[in-house]
Amino acid sequence: MKRSGLLLAVLVLLFTRTAFAADPIRIGAVFSSTGPASFLGEPEKNSLLMAADSINAAGGILGRQVEIIHYDDETDVNKCVLAVEKLARKDRVSAIVGPTTSGNTLAIMRNMERYGIPLVSCASSDKIVQPVNPWVFKVAPSDNFAIETLLDNILATGAKRIAILTVSDGYGQSGRAGLLSLIPQAGLELVADEVYGPKDTDMTAQLTKIRGLGADATICWGTNPGPAVIARNHKQLGMTTPLYMSHGVASKKFIELAGDAAEGLILPAGRLIVADQIPDGHPQKAMLLDYAAGYTQRFKADVSTFGGHAWDAMLLLKAAIEKAGSDDPKAIRDAMEQVTGLVGTAGIFSFSAEDHGGLDKTAFEVIRIENADWTIVR
């Protein structure tokens, strides 16, 4: 009886360990797959699923499959809060990727310490990681790095008087704060500080005021559809001074919405949308081309910078889980601060306890829209 009891105990232990090892690693995701920010959220959802499938096909993480549990917040902040609550309390995920927008991220990030679950945001506001929230990381390059890249280009043209036109949401407010700080630091004069609403359909009044103030260049900070409206209004008014856009329009959807008014516009963007134009020896090139080929083949659509953020988030979580040797949320959080030299679509990431963004200014190229496509400004 003793031997049979011992054998039974061993069999139960082996079964338990095998069952545990077979349990998937559950990763939550909240994206704006529908609603005004769907042009950002849909490629993010697609890319995260593609990344998980690729990892699973290669054997998973720590020998376990990855399961993605995704909710669509419909670009609604209240639905985003509820979705994150559900992922944390009901689905018991090990980490969460998203949200898509800065405003939604800022609304939920204060809850992550209470949940004890790490968040990897796909939004870009500097406020997401400054000051550091121990449980919150992001993979989109910070707004200030994009602003510095634009201002370097503007300075090279000899322009002195700058106007800004920013959207009144979380992304626009973050960009506006950076612009107000960095423009005078660059030795430029701010002559107009105009704002528009996310649902506004005509910005000729703001642009007419900017033209009357004699600005040498205008920087528009927002995501679609507003910037496309501004580009069309700028052209309709016959304005010839340069119009710069933020990295929030680094999607072919912007070119589609703006039409021929997009021609000649300049923006900062990651290398994903110009992967074929970067030098062959660049450490990102092979990965960018592989991701782009896989995405276009699977989804029959152009890649966008934003889909790349979700891909990078999954790469970061994979590296952290492997480093931690566990899918325990606290162990993942700790390991994320130790991930360095990670080659992603947005750049080469190096995180630390003091830096939960992991990128610097070198993540950006200056891009001009030519012939309805992207071209690196040399």
Automatic annotation (TrEMBL):
Signal peptide: 1-21
SUPFAM superfamilies according to UniProt: Periplasmic binding protein-like I
Domain of life: Bacteria
GO biological process: amino acid transport
This protein's UniProt keywords: Amino-acid transport, Signal, Transport
UniProt entry tagged with the keyword ATP-binding: no
Pfam family, one: Peripla_BP_6
InterPro entries (alphabetical): BCAA_transport (IPR051010), Leu-bd (IPR028081), Leu_Ile_Val-bd (IPR000709), Peripla_BP_I (IPR028082)
Domain Leucine-binding protein: 24-358
Family according to the record: Belongs to the leucine-binding protein family.
UniProt-recorded name of the protein: Branched-chain amino acid ABC transporter substrate-binding protein
Organism: Desulfovibrio psychrotolerans
